[in-house]
Structures are given as C-alpha cells and as structure tokens.
Design the sequence.
C-alpha cells in the first residue's frame, strides 16, 4: 500500500482501536466504531483499509505532525467537511 502502516489493531464490542504510523514517523491512536464503518463503507472494504485511507486523506491535507495523536475517524469531518465525500474515492483506488 504505502509507508502508512498499521502497527496494532484491537477489536472491541463497539469497533476497533488502531495504532498507525505515518511516513513521517508520527504515531496515532485511531478509533473506529462499527456504526461509522458501516455508514462509510457498507462493509465493502476492511476496517484497516478505511483507517489507511483516512490517514492518507489527512496527510494530503496537513502535515503528519499536525494530525492529532488520538482521534476517532468520525471526528475527521468536523475538521475537513469534504472527508465523507472524498473517502469513497480514496477507497476505490485501493481496490484497483
């Protein structure tokens, strides 16, 4: 895929907790709820790909150092309103 790497994944009753490292070497604790995963993907891809695509989206919009160290995927549209519209495009390029 790319230098973004998922270092750890833990499944919970409500979703997943990930530890993700960016190409710049920053590490981020990322949570993803099952409900939001279904809302964005309809189950058409894996949670890992959604997290990877979300970090890719963020890196395209700001430096890795400015990305919060801990965040929930559902918080991204609060800072980047185009996220929900763009994430499906990013995901589709992963499946090609």
Sequence:
């Amino acid at each position: 895929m790319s230098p973004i790497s998922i270092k750890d994944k833990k499944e919970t009753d409500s979703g997943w907790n990930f530890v993700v490292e960016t190409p710049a070497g920053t590490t981020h604790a990322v949570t993803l709820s099952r409900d939001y995963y279904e809302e964005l993907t309809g189950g058409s891809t894996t949670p890992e790909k959604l997290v990877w695509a979300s970090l890719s989206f963020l890196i395209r919009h700001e430096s890795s150092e400015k990305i919060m160290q801990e965040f929930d995927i559902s918080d991204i549209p609060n800072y980047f309103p185009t996220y929900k519209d763009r994430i499906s495009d990013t995901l589709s390029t992963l499946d090609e």
The chain has one domain: 5-94. The longest strand covers residues 5-11. Helices lie at 34-41, 47-61, 76-79, 83-94. The CA atoms of residues 8 and 19 lie 5 Å apart.
